[in-house]
Amino acid sequence: MAFMVKHVVGGQLKNLTGGLGEEKSEGEKSDAAAKGMTQEEYEEYQQQLVEEKMERDANFAQKKAERATVRTHFREKYRLPKSEMDDTQIQQAGQEVELPQELAKMIAEDNQEEEHKQSVFGKLSNIQNVDLDQLKDKAQATLEDLKQSAEKCSVM
């Protein structure tokens, strides 16, 4: 780890300062020899580092796109203004970005709860001190009374 930090930061510092103060003598070893590797092994090692960095960057971009998708979902749900930054991150991922499975389950449960709350029984159950069975009995009794009074009515 320290090697990577020194390699990344040291190289950039050297470029920034123009290599002042550090001039290699002709007798010094090459980077590969200094690390105890042959030139081929060193090149292979460097190639492996580049591939690992590309893989990490791709995974990071995918995670950023997933987070942007989550934010977009909540913006749509709560009718908030869209963010161009989130759209850009989703497009940069380059592949289909879906909500994480755990979040998708939570959203499905929330949708079911909202559908229940939107129904008549859901709204009635939110009212405190309401006995639904008693309310049903009263409604049926009222309906039966209306039927009986309709039968007695001479106009009909």
Structure report:
The chain has helices at 2-17, 31-34, 39-77, 84-93, 101-118, 120-126, 132-152. 74% of the residues lie in helices and 0% in strands. The chain is mainly alpha-helical. The protein has a domain at 59-101. The model has no long low-confidence stretch (mean pLDDT 78). The protein has seven helices and no strands.
Give a nutshell description of this structure.
The protein has 156 residues and is an all-alpha fold. It has helices spanning 2-17, 31-34, 39-77, 84-93, 101-118, 120-126, 132-152. The chain has 7 helices and no strands.
Number of strands: 0
Strand content: under 5%
Which structural category fits the helices and strands? mainly alpha
Specify the number of helices: 7
Please give the alpha-carbon distance between the first and last residues.
94 Å
Tell me, briefly, the overall form.
rod-shaped
Relative helix content: over 70%
List unreliable stretches of 5+ residues. none
Mean pLDDT: 78
How does the major sheet shape up?
Answer: none
SSE ordering: HHHHHHH
Rg calc: 35 Å
